[in-house]
Specification:
Blueprint: E1 5-6, H1 19-23, E2 39-42, H2 46-56, H3 58-76, H4 80-90, H5 94-100, H6 102-115, H7 119-125, H8 128-139, E3 147-151, E4 160-168, E5 175-180, E6 189-194, E7 201-204, E8 208-214, H9 227-235, H10 240-249, E9 256-262, E10 265-271, E11 276-278, E12 288-291, H11 306-313, H12 321-333, H13 341-348, E13 368-377, E14 383-387, E15 396-400
Parallel strand pairs: 2-5
Antiparallel strand pairs: 1-2, 3-4, 3-12, 4-13, 5-6, 6-7, 7-8, 8-9, 9-10, 10-11, 13-14, 14-15
Length: 404
């Protein structure tokens, strides 16, 4: 396997802009991050890919697992090792993961073996959303901040899906892009993730892409398919019909919004343990979707979120972070006809409400930040553009596929 760890290549990079050009604002107070997300090349079956991942990023995985445990202790006040074991014992995600996504399940085992970490730690590390659900059951305090959009293609431009992927601050500096070579059963893929994780979002060479937003208010299940496995299951599909069917029919482990792009079309699904509901922000314009972190179309709501859900439905939640960001997306995108890269990037960099921005610049004193900003171009020439951390500080780098 040649050149397994690379940050740049002549086929995969386009430097777009630095600080003042990124912000369009000469008062930018933080230095630009002159850095790209590193890429690791993975090939073979699931276990082989995981083994490569684990070995190549062994030190990074050891660091982020330690920080993950420290973050659990800080958030729960409990010793992380017994807490993780309790979470593992209280849930049953392995059977469905092994049944529906066997290659990805084996990939997790390979990561554990290659990195020298315990299998239970690595498996539970995959379950970011499901762990938030578990903690939410105990404390009802979890907050999440991701903003996504999708724009269908037409004769003048391809389809796009895009998002600011916000995560907890301990993951900063562990961004990685998995470049997965095609096999007999799976297409070539670019999967954005954190060291040690099988995936957060991505796109494949068949022009199928997926972005995700946590919907903590929706009902969850202790034996459904976790989000990371769902994302990779979508990207393993060879055609859009199978990808959409997979999302709509599989039992979901946690509440999640899926923005899926298939060649020239875009779809938005709010998924809970009980049902999957397609969401259209504007029925008059089915070519545009956008979402943040509260359920709108799906009413399969947890009891302790029922009051908040009703306030949002009644338009009485103007101070809700997710509602504020949703309104920002709506104001910038709805009614627009020129869906250019410029508009998408301006939206992803936006801080219309400084306390509740779409773009969350990293700050050690904050609990979360924009881990990366991704734009997936679909159609005949699929690609991914992504930043290292928030797009107000970092350049977009473009990666293209080697196969059609």
């Amino acid at each position: 396997m040649k050149n397994p760890l690379r940050a740049f290549s002549s086929l995969s990079i386009t430097l777009i802009f630095l600080c003042t050009a990124i912000n369009g604002n000469p008062s930018c107070k933080k230095a630009a991050i002159n850095k790209a997300v590193p890429v690791i090349e993975l090939s073979g079956n699931g276990y082989q890919r995981g083994l490569q991942h684990g070995k190549l990023l062994k030190s990074q995985i050891a660091e982020v697992i330690l920080k993950w445990k420290q973050n659990i202790k800080k958030g729960t006040g409990q010793d992380p090792d017994p807490f993780i074991k309790g979470f593992y014992a209280a849930t049953n995600f392995e059977p469905i993961s092994k049944k529906l996504t066997p290659e990805i399940f084996d990939e997790v085992k390979g990561i554990a073996e290659g990195s020298g970490q315990s299998y239970i730690d690595i498996f539970c590390f995959q379950l970011a959303d499901e762990l938030w659900v578990y903690i939410d059951r105990l404390k009802h305090t979890t907050q999440n901040h991701c903003s996504g959009m999708g724009i269908a293609g037409n004769n003048d431009r391809p389809a796009y899906i895009a998002q600011n992927l916000d995560v907890e601050s301990y993951m900063n500096s562990y961004q990685v892009l998995l470049h997965i070579k095609a096999t007999k059963t799976e297409p070539e893929q670019y999967v954005l993730t954190c060291s040690g994780l099988v995936g957060m979002n991505g796109v494949n060479s068949k022009s199928i892409g997926v972005c995700v937003n946590t919907l903590m208010d929706l009902q969850a299940s202790t034996d459904g398919l976790p989000v990371a496995f769902m994302v990779r299951g979508i990207l393993a599909k060879q055609n859009g019909k199978d990808a959409l069917e997979f999302v709509k029919t599989v039992k979901h482990a946690s509440g999640q919004n899926y923005i899926i792009g298939v060649v020239d079309s875009v779809y938005d699904f709010e998924a809970s343990a009980g049902k999957v509901v397609r969401f259209l922000p504007d029925n008059a314009n089915p070519s545009l979707v956008y979402h943040t972190n509260h359920a709108i179309a799906n009413d399969d709501i947890k009891t302790w979120y029922a009051e908040d859900y009703q306030k949002i439905k009644a338009g009485k939640a103007a101070n809700n972070n997710s509602v504020i960001r949703f309104t920002s997306l709506k104001n910038r995108l709805a009614g627009n006809s020129d869906f250019s890269y410029k508009l998408i990037k301006q939206t992803l960099r936006s801080k219309d409400n400084p306390k509740n921005p779409v773009c969350n610049t990293f700050d050690n004193d904050r609990g979360g930040f924009t881990f990366t900003s991704d734009i997936f171009t679909l159609g005949k020439h699929p690609s991914i553009q992504l930043t290292f951390a928030s797009p107000d500080q970092s350049m977009y780098v473009t990666h293209i596929f080697l196969t059609k």
